Amino acid sequence: MRIAVIGAGQFGRRHIEALRRDPDCELAGVADPAYSGDRAFSDYRRLLDDAKPDGVIVATPNALHVPVGLACVEREVPVLVEKPIADTVAAARVLVKAAEEARVPLLVGHHRRYNPLVEKARELVQGGGLGRLTAVAALWLLQKPDDYYGVAWRREAGGGPLLINCIHDIDDLRFICGEIEQARALVSSQARGFAVEDTAAIALRFANGALGTVTVCDTAAAPWAWELTSGEYDFYPRERENCYFFTGTEASLGFPTMELWKYVGRKGWYAPLSRETLDVRPGDSQARQLQHFCRVIRGEEPPRVSGADALRTLEVIEAIKSAT
Question: For residue 165, what is the DSSP state?
Answer without folding.
Answer: I
